[in-house]
Amino acid sequence: MSLRIIAKLFIDGIGPKLADYVPVFHDFIKNDSLGEVLIDVADYSHVFEGPGIVLIGHSADYSLDVEKGRAGLRYLRKRAPHLANEEAEAKDALGRMLRAALLLEQDTRLSGLKFSTLELEVRFADRLHFPAESVGDAAARAVLVPALQVLFPGGFELLRKGTPKELLSFTVKPKTGETLTALSERLDPAPLS
Fold first, then answer.
1. What is the reported pLDDT for 3?
2. Chain segment 38-85, per-residue pLDDT in tens
3. How far apart are CA 142 and CA 4, in angstroms?
């Protein structure tokens, strides 16, 4: 079984227009920037508080979404590389999201783009193994906390959010602010084969 996880890193401030991400995502495909099979780019910027611009991949989708009015890079793991366990998959997923965020920040076409490293949202898109109840909460924390301890060695606060009708979700608030570069270096994703 593959860990189906969604992670979102929020944009600090307003950031570029959604349409500005389309050519950047196309270049991610053309240049194999993320080291994984990327298929297409879809523009949903016309949808109010929707998925925005989506980079569709075989193993994961990346999107610049504006859900609930908060813009950010959203990573959705659909299938994982063969890793030792779910804890390793969580580290890999967060590492992939951070690497993509760093590449976006470094792209000169997206001038002014800055991701906040003071908050992270994580959801589990598997209601069978991670129900939005206490048993799911405990299972999710067992998977997520080891990755977060590597990512935020200075400590973090892990807050449950949402309702039982929603996916099991958490907000992660690190105790210290760090650069995106420092965070991405801590969770180097596994090569895809």
1. 86
2. 999 999 999 999 899 999 999 999 999 999 889 999 999 998 666 778
3. 15
CA distance 96 to 155: 21
> Is residue 127 assigned to a domain?
yes
Domain count, the chain: 1
What residue ranges in the chain does DSSP mark as E strands?
5-11, 38-44, 52-57, 60-65, 72-77, 115-124, 156-161, 168-174
| C-alpha–C-alpha distance, residues 54 and 21, integer Å | 9
Tokens (6 digits) for 81: 């590389």
Q: What is the pTM of this model?
A: 0.93
Amino acid found at 174: P
The answer to whether 74 and 117 are in contact (CB under 8 A) is no
Residue by residue, DSSP assigns 84-121 as: SSHHHHHHHHHHHHHHHHHHHHH-GGGTT--EEEEEEE
DSSP 8-state code for residue 11: E
Residue 192 lies in a domain: no
Residue with tokens 């523009």: 43
